[in-house]
């Protein structure tokens, strides 16, 4: 019996030795061939699009990526990092969060990685293929790159139904306001508006205010505001709030009313554009949601189209608000380094835009140019692509670039304002107080830059 037990033990030891040798041949332990990534995409469309990127990486490398989607990404990530259980990789909730983790030393800089497929450093690829705005975004206010832009969006857009509106929205702010008032006078509703999106409700309203400030006071004021150098109670910022209020809080201005907008989920906000009898005619934002309940599948260019957000004051250079999703590395490993090179590659950058033509775009200039040539001349996607590659000054989403406490207060302030617009002075004073605590040291965000290589914002 003892001899049998010794033989069993020897067999077990031999099996373990062989397993260890196999793991060594693979370059490490088995679990390093599996990476974890935290993502914010819980909806089927975006989650499936990102999974297509991950699947392409897995097929190319044999490395498995386990994605964990959560709407509370910032909160979950912060808790995991504090417990010492950070994922290998994470999509950043916003550039402000990216900057915070970079300053704390939690992220792995990308400046020494090689893209073995292209035979050059990853940082060289990013500088070559991406505009200065997108590269700086990944630097998080430091001198080192920490992130890759997975996909890009344009926010300075006014969506409308060409057949229902009967014309393109006016290209001036005064004309747009006049058109809205005319719609109200004939007993209909000009604007769709929905700001509910837990746990970040309010952000669709912040996009509005940011766009107005950018096109009313210019990129310099916009950047100073993002960096905490321009107070919320300043004439520039308070004017942006007041202008938005005049647009969406007037009687009959928004579908339902402003209180309905507080309770309506953002993903459903554009649905009234597509109902048999239009519930509204205009929507502001990064994308229009094609409602599955529409009489037929909406056709871009026919059933919905966009016009660029109009300037409120003459600008030396056109300006456009953009946003992007960033992926960074918390745990260094050869597998994680391989992944960081992949989403920056032309192969990966074409996957998401090909699946969501009007709502997801690449910040990679090479890919944008290649895809633009495949679009129809007047297509919605092509014209948005042209905004991303034009000489216009691109300014990254302001609230996404602010410290997380400031961004959260901004979101909440939108809800308070829609609930009671008369409280604006008190709301702005409260935001000034948050700003004083949220910026303990000067910030240099470089949030605005020209879309053309080698040029600065004007």
Automatic annotation (TrEMBL):
Protein name: ABC transporter substrate-binding protein
Domain of life: Bacteria
PROSITE patterns assigned to the protein according to its UniProt record, in alphabetical order: PROKAR_LIPOPROTEIN (PS51257)
Biased composition (Polar residues): 441-458
Similarity comment: family membership: Belongs to the bacterial solute-binding protein 1 family.
Annotated segments matching region Disordered: 439-458
Pfam families linked: SBP_bac_1
Keywords: Transport
InterPro entries noted in UniProt: Bact_solute-bd_prot1, SBP
Source lineage: Bacteria, Bacillati, Actinomycetota, Actinomycetes, Kitasatosporales
């Amino acid at each position: 019996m003892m001899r049998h037990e010794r033989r069993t033990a020897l067999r077990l030891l031999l099996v373990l030795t062989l397993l260890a040798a196999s793991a060594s041949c693979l370059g490490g332990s088995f679990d390093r061939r599996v990476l974890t990534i935290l993502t914010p995409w819980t909806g089927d469309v975006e989650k499936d699009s990102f999974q297509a990127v991950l699947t392409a990486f897995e097929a190319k490398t044999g490395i498995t990526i386990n994605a964990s989607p959560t709407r509370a990404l910032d909160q979950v990530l912060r808790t995991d990092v504090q417990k010492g259980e950070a994922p290998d990789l994470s999509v950043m909730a916003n550039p402000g969060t990216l900057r915070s983790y970079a300053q704390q030393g939690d992220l792995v800089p990308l400046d020494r990685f090689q893209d073995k497929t292209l035979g050059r450093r990853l940082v060289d690829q990013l500088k070559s293929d991406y505009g200065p705005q997108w590269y700086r975004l990944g630097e998080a206010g430091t001198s080192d790159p920490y992130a890759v832009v997975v996909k890009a969006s344009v926010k300075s857009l006014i969506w409308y139904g060409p057949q229902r509106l009967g014309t393109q929205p006016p290209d001036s702010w005064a004309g747009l306001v006049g058109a809205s008032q005319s719609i109200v006078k004939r007993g209909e509703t000009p604007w769709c508006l929905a700001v509910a999106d837990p746990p970040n409700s309010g952000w669709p309203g912040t996009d509005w205010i940011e766009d107005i400030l950018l096109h009313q006071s210019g990129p310099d004021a916009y950047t100073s505001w993002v960096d905490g150098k321009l107070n919320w109670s300043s004439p520039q910022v308070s004017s942006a709030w007041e202008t938005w209020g005049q647009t969406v809080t007037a009687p009959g201005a928004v579908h339902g009313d402003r209180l309905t907008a507080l309770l309506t989920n953002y993903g459903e906000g554009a649905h009234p554009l597509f109902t048999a009898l239009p519930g509204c005619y205009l929507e502001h934002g990064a994308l229009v949601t094609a409602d599955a309940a529409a009489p037929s599948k909406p056709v871009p260019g026919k059933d919905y189209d966009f016009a660029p957000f109009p300037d409120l004051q003459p600008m030396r250079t056109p300006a456009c608000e953009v946003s992007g999703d960033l992926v960074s590395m918390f745990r260094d490993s050869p597998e994680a380094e391989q992944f960081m090179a992949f989403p920056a590659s032309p192969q990966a950058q074409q996957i998401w835009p090909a699946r969501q033509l009007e709502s997801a775009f690449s910040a990679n200039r090479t890919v944008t140019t290649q895809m633009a040539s495949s679009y129809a001349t007047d297509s919605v996607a092509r014209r948005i692509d042209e905004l991303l590659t034009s000489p216009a000054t691109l300014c990254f989403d302001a609230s996404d670039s602010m410290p997380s406490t400031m961004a959260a207060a901004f979101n909440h302030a939108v809800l308070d304002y829609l609930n009671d617009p008369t409280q604006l002075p008190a709301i702005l004073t409260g935001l000034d107080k948050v700003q004083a605590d949220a910026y303990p040291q000067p910030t240099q965000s470089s949030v605005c830059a020209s879309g053309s290589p080698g040029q600065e914002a004007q």
